[in-house]
Amino acid sequence: YVYMESSVSVRIYKEELKEIDVISQYLKATKSAILREVLGIGIKSKMLEIALEKFQKNEVTAAKAASIAGVSLSEFFEILNRKGINYHYGVDELREDFKRLAIYDK
Predict the structure, then answer these.
(1) Could you write out the DSSP letters of every residue in 52-102?
(2) Which residues touch 60 (CB under 8 Å, ≥6 apart)?
(3) How many CA atoms lie within 13 A of 75 on its CB side?
(4) Rounded to whole angstroms, how far apart are CA atoms 39 and 33?
């Protein structure tokens, strides 16, 4: 895949900009580099939040939720365990996940 960079204009609260400046000074990096890193962390966090919510509402299987979150199925189960979230993972979900895995193995 070839990813093209794009510029986006965003308004940032003064307090957040000060914190970005502090991080930039600590890491001796540009504000742009820090903002890209923080944005990446935030996107991953948000995708995990979406995956957990969909899984808890029985809208997706564990494998699909793991895919949304960008983690392996075992990592997803570890996250569920750490957060104390009930698995509600039955035979039907297991079958569906195995079918999905079989598709990706080909």
Answers:
(1) HHHHHTTSS-HHHHHHHHTS-HHHHHHHHHHHT------HHHHHHHHHHHH
(2) 51, 54, 68
(3) 11
(4) 10
Asked if the model's pLDDT at residue 90 lies above 70, the reply is: no
Residue 103: band (very low, low, confident or very high) from pLDDT cuts 50, 70, 90: low
Angle between helical axes of 62-69 and 31-56 (0-180°, round to 10): 170
CB 66 within 8 A of CB 51: yes
Q: Is the model more confident about 23 or about 90?
A: 23
**pTM above the 0.85 mark?**
no
| pLDDT classification of 99: cutoffs 50, 70, 90 | confident
Q: What is the CA radius of gyration of the chain?
A: 19
Mention every residue, 6+ apart, whose C-beta is less than 8 A from residue 35: 20
Encoding tokens for residue 31? 């504000």
Helix (H, G, I), strand (E, B) or coil at 28: coil
